[in-house]
Amino acid sequence: MNPIYDYNDINSENDFYEDYGDYEVYQGNDEIYFFDVWRYCGLLSVQSILPLVIKLLVSNAIFGIILPNCKSESCFHLVSGGVGVYLISEVKSFEGKYIIVIYFLISYFVLLSSQYVGDGNRKRLGIFAKLALIGSLIFSEYLLIDPAIFLQIRGILMVLIMKVLSLVDETVERKTSIGILQYFGYSLCCANILFGPWITFREYLGIHSTRRRKDIFWILGICKSLILALLCLTVSNCWSTYLIPDESNRWLLAYRDALAFRYSHYFVSYMAESGMIAAGFKNPTLKDGSIWSYTIVSPMEVEFPTSLSVVVTKWNGPMHLFLKNSIYQPTKRYGQFAAIMATFLISSFLHGLEVKVSVVLLSLGLFSYLQAKARTILSSGFSACVKIKSCKQCNHKYKRDHWAVKISLILFSFTSIIHLAYLGILMDPQSNDISIYEKWNNLYFIGHVIMFFNLILII
């Protein structure tokens, strides 16, 4: 079966995802057993994605094995981009492939033009280039490209635009130039062309200079990420509905729908991780050089968050780094709140400015900001260590191990989980015909009630 590109992940760089309604095959049965779920849903979900998985991993593994033989940098860029072009063939629409080529050429023209202007105009051109590239995604989705086709290539275009935006910073701020081969290899890098994640140009070049030796731990790293990806896929498609059936109360159903969405994101993230490892990428911070790992998402910290800010940073580490460096830091001079909202606004633009996605992202930015401010005020007012991050040298009267502080931290964690369910239900593809207002009204606007209490504390 061929993948259906209907994935609406708000913080993954890719839309390659197949969400079959396999559970409906046996959902009407009076008794549903574990092996029924696996046979009629789990197994079918895994089988449906296997052709894409095999193509991704085999292509990147070949690239990773060939890499040490690419002595020259030109050879490295050609192989990286060439394998990436091969993987783009997964896009079924010819028009979609054509649009990717157009974006590739126009983006390089924009990048090239920023290298041949005077220093006085270079920074202004850089800002204009960023706005034009981001705006082109929205313009293309709503005015130029058929929505069904755009959905197939949205993830690829988003990663491509993010790479070009970071290259604009390279050329404008560091006054460096990027050759066509460098751009070809980096922008279409086979390791992250389908599932992401965004990587810096320096990290991309680093894989050629280090030339890590592939061994049994490399294979184990790929297998671990692949197993976790497929497990998350079955949780999203099957086990969430099996464990929390439709007869459950509204709160459990909201948690279930949000859980299914989160696990679909984990699936994409672990697939991206397996592709990166297969190509030879690994976390540079790993102390044990024999371990092959490339962390994109931290599910445990998202599922059991100490704060909404933790969810923001751990949901997609590479994209968080990109937004922090490219959007948050440059706009921080206008105030923290303005910088946060600008960051989430640009993030929604990168995702195509789809209404539900934009509402989720902007709400998450607002909720996380108010929660952090409320905790800071409570920490100062009661001399209690309840900030998001624990103090390195705590001078509070009530420290992290005090029973009242522990209860407060549990409450903040619980409200963060409520927020995840409250925002996550908007992303349920099975209820697209239900408005945002109806979904939130069904939960008594609990997320906004919590926000209101945080706002009172701040005022």
TrEMBL record:
GO BP, one annotated term: lipid modification
Top-level EC class: transferase
Primary location recorded for the protein, binned into one broad class: membrane
The reaction(s) this protein catalyses: [Wnt protein]-L-serine + (9Z)-hexadecenoyl-CoA = [Wnt protein]-O-(9Z)-hexadecenoyl-L-serine + CoA
Transmembrane segments: 48-67, 98-118, 125-145, 151-168, 180-201, 216-235, 359-382, 403-422, 442-458
UniProt keyword Transferase present: yes
Protein family according to the UniProt entry: Belongs to the membrane-bound acyltransferase family. Porcupine subfamily.
Protein name from the UniProt record: Protein-serine O-palmitoleoyltransferase porcupine
Native source organism of the sequence: Henosepilachna vigintioctopunctata
Lineage per the UniProt record: Eukaryota, Metazoa, Ecdysozoa, Arthropoda, Hexapoda
